[in-house]
Amino acid sequence: MRTYKVSFAHRASLLDAADLAAVAELINSNDPLSGGRRREAFEAAFSAYTGTRHALSVTSGTVALEIAIRLLGLEPGDEVIVTPQTYHATIQALLEQQVRVTFCDVDPSSLNLDPAALASLIGPRTRAVVLVHYGGLPADMDRITALARAHGAVVIEDCAHALGASYRGRMPGSLGDIGCFSFFATKNITTLGQGGMLTFHRDDWADRVRQVRDNGVDGRFVPLGMVEEPVPATLPWMKFHGGAYQRACVDVIRTGTNANMPEAAAGVGLSQLAKLGHLIDRRRQIASRLDSVVDRFSAVRPHRAPPDAEHAHHLYTFFTDAGSDARDHLVRELDSRGVEVQLRYFPLHLRPEWRRHGHGPGECPVAEDSWFSRHVNLPCHPGLSDDQVEFLVQALAESLTAVLTGVRRAAIDDTVRQGHG
Length: 421
Description:
Elements: H1 17-27, H2 37-50, E1 54-58, H3 61-71, E2 79-82, E3 100-103, H4 115-121, E4 126-132, H5 141-150, E5 154-158, E6 166-167, E7 178-182, E8 196-200, H6 203-213, E9 217-223, E10 247-255, H7 263-274, H8 276-294, E11 300-302, E12 309-310, E13 316-320, H9 324-336, H10 352-355, H11 365-374, E14 375-378, H12 386-420
Helix pairs in contact: 1-7, 2-7, 8-12, 9-12
């Protein structure tokens, strides 16, 4: 495996003595290892941070997204509009739903779902809009939610990149109807490698999520007196199951699962959340250094937040307008200098599982053009040392100079040749 001087991290958050102490405190206690006070404290702190009524933890961001899709109660013939510019877990739960999935193109500057494109797609059968805050830059949520509200559609925010960002003074996860966060090892904070969170305001959704993650049944329950069902006598030893005789199930939607976040993970999550500001500040410092290089070249432009938003810089992204050959040459140039480049993300509508459902090239031309010709992602995480940041900045400046000077020279030579022709 190639060794890079500056690489995308396997751990993109910093784990320190405070995180270790959180685990040690649990181990040295007699507290339960799942479903205890640490999880409750982490959820309460996350709810307060995002400004949402409920924050419920689960075992991964993927599980959070799966549960969010389940909350929609989709039926055959319903439509869900989604972004193509994201990791495949954002929408993979829709593959097993008998619904119409419509890919909405992205804005060329933000790579977020384009409200203008959404306006031309949304209609009476649209039940939900699923978006991501790409790279940590919040989507244009006021315009998107206004369109969704006008059509009675739910907005699901994939906030895997966006913890630490803000939009008009509000936090991602509180901007739509349901927020889904990931605490995977590469995210802005981690809960020991895996973990997720759902955020929303609705009490009925909170009841359902708790049922699902605790191996309960996702169904409709009513007080027992509302149905004709015999009530057996209960004995003292049956007290833990007494609830079985207090209500009746009138409909089963789906079975539940065990998606409880372990206490060790929740304890570390609480510790990580306390230093989120420091972690995001480091990302922004690195991004600012890289922006200062990109700004020196007219043929490239940064992925920059508008004045009313704050970028979390989960990804550092910039764009080249010099053509696909120049972008690919630039990627190879950076790679040769020891900088790892990962282009994120391959347009979902071109993946084989979605092509099988009738999607394909030309459906989202902006997303396709960006991935194949324009955008570049560079390492930008707090685990980078000062020396690595200096190396990265220098390598970017030298690579852009080498590639774009070559592009200009080739253009001049071509003009000269045409003039002599």
